[in-house]
Specification:
Number of strands: 0
Structural class: mainly alpha
Order of helices and strands: HHHH
Distance between the termini: 66 Å
Number of helices: 4
Organism: Chaetura pelagica (Chimney swift)
Keywords: Coiled coil
Protein name: Unconventional myosin-Vb
Length: about 150
């Protein structure tokens, strides 16, 4: 019972926090809407030439902000690319070190490993299909399989 009460209180607290966050968001949106409304009313009072200029200024501002966001994204992606290239170099070095260590393995052991690989390859070749046919006969083969 106490566990259920604690869970209920946690859910109630989370719900209240969510409501407060949403109220804050609504208030911010209302303020933004009021600012846009005031700007719209001011624009209507301007001459047609001034309205066009104001619209252009607004568009320039919007595009500038969008460009800044895209530059930030580009910088993050470039940073990630540098990080990945660095990791790739590290892994390539590890592979080279591993290959070098394999070169020092006795020849007998390497021959044994190669024989094992060859046998695996032969097994795979044995099971690569059950039917051999010409490409031109494929429609006839499909029709016969269906009927």
């Amino acid at each position: 019972l106490r566990l259920l009460e604690a869970q209920l209180q946690d859910q109630r607290r989370e719900h209240e926090e969510e409501i407060e966050a949403l109220k804050t968001q609504v208030d911010a949106l209302q303020e933004e809407m009021e600012k846009q409304h005031q700007a719209f009313l001011q624009t209507l009072q301007l001459s047609p030439e001034a309205q066009v200029e104001f619209g252009l200024q607004q568009e320039i501002t919007r595009l500038t902000n969008e460009n800044l966001d895209l530059k930030e994204l580009l910088e993050r992606l470039e940073k990630n690319e540098r990080k990945l290239k660095k990791q790739l170099k590290i892994y390539m070095k590890r592979v080279q070190d591993f290959e070098a260590s394999q070169a020092t393995v006795p020849a007998e052991r390497r021959r044994h490993e190669q024989n094992m690989q060859v046998s695996v390859q032969r097994k795979e070749k044995d099971f690569q299909g059950m039917l051999e046919y010409y490409k031109e006969d494929e429609p006839l083969l499909i029709r016969n399989l269906i009927t």
